[in-house]
């Protein structure tokens, strides 16, 4: 349809793949995103962002951008290719099983950018007065995932917002960390869906303080526990728990560890039907080497009667065990009992639903499946020390060189699309919050077009509304409306016979009802049709169309 | 400086590297961009886009985006990793000496995306009614450049806008091609600098019609010729030329070629002091194999007297030669003269300044050094045929499968920054058109700040002006102004003792004088200081600040 004014149309291949497709809520979200041409996968784990998907991704990126800018983080874009030298200095080159290495394995495609940003600051910082330095970027990251799955959730390439902070000391770094916590809270509030911030283990990235940000959902691959008394929330690798009451544990398993200096054998005893969390054992014996897990190798280290005299043995009993439990035999024969220390009542297994919270030792734990969408880490000097990222600081009337204290903060932008898609979908298809939708309003016309309708597009353009017209020839009106709903577009505007009265069909979830204020103060015709207390249709005079749309979208 | 309102500040490491740096116009632009923290190079050929550089790049991208959207191209973002299978089908895998190959050489980092976009269309197009399909993306591209140089001009990674079109036939593809020509013209007009569109050879990308888009500048590595009679413009690989008058050429060189079917020896004769253009020889003998250049190998093919009888020989004489020239001996002895065809007066060498235009055979050619910033190609079915990108088309009352007719269209976004930086720099440093500047206005304050100045930031925020405040402590006012000029920011706003009168220092080039209309209709105090007829300073009352700035920026 040729018009003088510029009409923004739906993408050309919009819904081209759904004619033979019977939607039901059980269709996996990644299949839905593919059928609806949000994305495509040229190969497993690789992603093409098609026009609708790119638009949604840019919208999420802009939410992130706004909130990171507000706390004075500066946006930059680091090279996607990184030389291995820094990764060797930080020790990550060896552990990087999932790196994409290239060009004679001298370079890699960046999975995260701690090394590069630390190099950047090390070479550019001239005075401690410029601290803190706060940077973020939103760009592709790479991981040579051997078993990519679920479309956007675990792929070989993904879009991530990664932020990095450099402070003069831990105190100032904690202020920065808390500012980021605030920005993350605002970002996830902007995105409308309920979220959870959970204390987390720092894992391979390192550092000493960490939170994971989750959407709670039954399809999640993580587990998050919250306490109904103290309110603390943590992921399964961080949730300490005590048994509800003294329970009878029949069979006991043991797992052996040793300390890094090989001086101490650590025997962790726990119920046979429970999962040991080695990190919890490490909490008790900080020098524990959790990477060496070969039980025979460990025991061999402690089997020579001649050297055993100089070694120590620590036995750690999980809180669920008691003296009546059925312990396995001790595998080493000649033991000087005075060398053995026994720690009892220590929580060393993964928590279970309704156990007692290890934080307050009072409330009950409640577990939820969760999808991780962000992660914040306080890193300390883990990267700044090996990469020489330090600065001269005045101390009295001298100066001293100090390593900078860092933090890093990720948000999985492409993961958020997959997660919100999954969580919000319903019987009619996808259902986006307006801030994530590829466009906010689909405009369809009944009949063969009407010259008068042009005026509507002019209004929409003037108001800067984020609409797309579906003017595909020979596609029926009902089908156009259904497809807009299937795509998850918040509102469909129907231009029909009742013009200048225009019908609005509401698809998006309402997260508020501030539209009623606009409705009460209307000076144009506006009728509402309700179903089960929900406003499902609005009939608005063209003169009020943009005000009604703005009011309704405000709540979505 | 802490304020209640949000003040947008210059980047933290803004100009941190220039204190020990003496600027002069001879400082190479890529060094300047690095010293001013627009970019950094973690390794030769790799680029980190620092906050100022990223901002300029995003601004250019947005100009491109606007103009491509206007001609109904849809933006998407294809995977940066591509499987080799399609590249083998199109024959580009073997020729790709500069590919970054990864993961057992099964994948590559994309240098351009003809293969992937053609696959996408082949698998998603359901009806010819959806044609034309028009796509573009703005994202990183990769080339394993062995000798990266000049910062952004020839690197291992760069930001490119690449667009692709799919049409039902050549006629419709030509309409698309011309629409792109229009959009490119508007893009480069938006960017303010004079540019040239030159007919170009299609080279490795292939196809049959091609234009290069250039900035003419003495630092360019390309040469572009234009005719002062017919106005045709072409690059050196496409410019046919005739000698000014019959000149005496003493020594003649010869280069041998053969046809792909090895049936014909082609002997190209040309002046010894000129550069042969094999493409021009190929114009005369379309089956010519320009890739085989080993002279001995070629002559060996034609040295067997027994088979020579079945072969042909074509002698091509450059237009600059005549019978008095000193030709080399013919290297093959037994020749049946009837097998030899001689073509004379053919232009086969690179044109030179003031030679006669090969198009109109009348005007004089003028050569200019040029920096290539864009390239447009009509591809025909070069990619659609091997990749099976076709569609059913009704022909009478039957249907036929037709290969789609493609075009591809590149713009070097990162190159444009380097080029405009180079072309526009002057005695004071960089000098950006406002649409490319990382920000448009730097605000500096004399003295120790003044509570009243807050009002100015409030005005600037309200007007949505793209300013940054330079509130670095202990940096003098003069230095701040000089650094803003060195960075190439169009205007510096100086808040000082004369407040509420505010001084504006003009740095940017004026490409118009529509500001004078705003000046004539002013209803606030506004004095102008001229030097050599140029307005170099403005003194504006705070109430008119945003209107004066908007008026002045309009021309920059």
Distance between the termini of chain A: 31 Å
Structural class of chain A: alpha+beta
Kindly identify the CATH topology of the largest domain in chain A: BirA Bifunctional Protein, domain 2
What characteristic shape of chain A results from the CA principal axes?
A: elongated
Can you tell me the CATH superfamily of the largest domain in chain A?
Bira Bifunctional Protein, Domain 2
Oligomer: homodimer
- Taken as a percent bin, the fraction of beta residues of chain A is 25-35%
Low-confidence stretches of chain A: none
Roughly how much helix do the residues of chain A carry, as a percent range? 10-25%
CATH architecture of the largest domain in chain A: 2-Layer Sandwich
How many runs of DSSP E, i.e. beta strands of chain A? 29
CATH class of the largest domain in chain A: Alpha Beta
CA radius of gyration of chain A is 29 Å
Mean pLDDT of chain A: 91
Number of domains of chain A: 3
Largest interface, chains and sizes: A-B, 54 and 55 residues
Pfam family, one (chains A, B): tRNA-synt_2b
GO molecular function, one term (chains A, B): ATP binding
Domain Aminoacyl-transfer RNA synthetases class-II family profile (chains A, B): 45-433
Protein name (chains A, B): proline--tRNA ligase
Write the layout of secondary structure elements.
The structure is a homodimer of 556-residue chains.
Chain A (H helix, E strand, L loop, with lengths): L28 H7 L3 E2 L7 E2 L1 H20 L3 E2 L5 E3 H6 L2 H4 L4 E3 L4 E3 L4 H11 L8 E10 L14 E11 L2 H21 L5 E4 L9 E8 L5 E6 L5 E3 L5 E2 L9 E8 L4 E8 L6 H7 L3 E2 L5 H7 L3 H4 L3 E7 L21 E7 L9 E2 L7 E16 L9 E6 L2 E6 L1 E8 H12 L16 E5 L8 H10 L3 E3 L7 H11 L3 E5 L5 E6 L8 H6 L5 E6 L2 E8 L3 H10 L2
Helix pairs in contact in A: 2-6, 2-10
């Amino acid at each position: 349809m040729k018009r003088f004014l510029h009409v923004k149309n739906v993408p050309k291949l919009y819904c081209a793949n759904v004619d033979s497709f019977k939607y039901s809520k059980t269709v996996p979200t990644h299949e839905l995103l593919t059928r609806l041409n949000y994305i495509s996968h040229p190969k497993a784990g690789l992603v093409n962002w098609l026009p609708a998907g790119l638009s949604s991704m840019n919208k999420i990126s802009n939410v992130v951008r706004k909130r990171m800018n507000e706390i004075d983080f500066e946006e930059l874009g680091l090279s996607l290719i990184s030389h291995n030298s820094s990764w060797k200095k930080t020790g990550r080159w060896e552990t990087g099983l999932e790196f994409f290495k290239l060009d004679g394995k001298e370079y890699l495609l960046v999975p995260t950018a701690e090394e590069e940003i630390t190099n950047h600051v090390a070479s550019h910082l001239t005075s401690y007065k410029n601290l803190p330095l706060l940077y973020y970027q939103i760009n592709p990251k790479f991981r040579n995932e051997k078993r990519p799955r679920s479309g956007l959730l675990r792929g070989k390439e993904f879009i991530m917002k990664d932020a990095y902070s450099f402070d003069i000391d831990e105190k100032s770094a904690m202020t920065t960390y808390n500012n980021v916590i605030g920005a993350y809270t605002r970002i996830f509030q902007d995105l409308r869906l309920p979220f959870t911030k959970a204390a987390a283990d720092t894992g391979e990235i390192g550092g000493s303080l960490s939170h994971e940000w989750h959407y709670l959902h039954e399809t999640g691959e993580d587990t998050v526990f919250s306490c109904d008394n103290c309110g603390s929330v943590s992921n399964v690798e961080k949730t300490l728990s005590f048994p509800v009451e003294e329970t009878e544990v029949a069979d006991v398993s043991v797992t052996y560890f040793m300390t890094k200096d090989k001086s101490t054998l650590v025997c962790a005893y726990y119920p046979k039907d429970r999962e040991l969390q080695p990190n919890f054992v490490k909490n008790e014996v900080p020098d524990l080497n959790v990477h060496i897990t070969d039980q025979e190798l460990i025991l061999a280290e402690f089997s020579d009667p001649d050297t055993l005299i100089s070694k120590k043995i620590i036995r750690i009993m999980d809180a669920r065990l008691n003296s009546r439990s059925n312990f396995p035999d001790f595998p080493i024969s000649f033991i000087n009992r005075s060398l053995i220390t026994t720690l009892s009542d220590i929580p060393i297994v993964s928590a279970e639903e309704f156990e007692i919270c290890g934080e307050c030792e009072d409330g009950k734990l409640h577990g939820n499946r969760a999808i991780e969408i962000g992660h914040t880490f306080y890193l300390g000097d883990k990267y700044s020390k090996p990469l020489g990222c330090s600065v001269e600081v005045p101390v009295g009337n001298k100066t001293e060189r100090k390593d900078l204290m860092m933090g890093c903060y990720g948000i999985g932008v492409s993961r958020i699309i997959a997660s919100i898609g999954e969580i919000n979908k319903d019987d009619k298809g996808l259902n986006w919050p307006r801030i994530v939708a590829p466009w906010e309003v689909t405009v369809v016309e009944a009949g063969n077009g009407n010259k008068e309708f042009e005026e509507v597009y002019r209004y929409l353009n003037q108001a800067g509304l984020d609409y797309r017209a579906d003017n595909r020839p020979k596609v029926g009106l009902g089908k156009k409306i259904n497809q807009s709903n299937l795509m998850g577009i918040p509102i469909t505007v129907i231009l029909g016979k009742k013009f200048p009265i225009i019908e609005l069909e509401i698809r998006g979830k309402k997260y508020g009802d501030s539209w009623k204020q606009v409705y009460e103060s209307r000076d144009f015709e506006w009728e509402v049709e309700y179903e089960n207390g929900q406003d499902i249709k609005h009939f608005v005079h063209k003169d009020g169309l943009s005000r009604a749309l703005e009011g309704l979208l405000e709540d979505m």
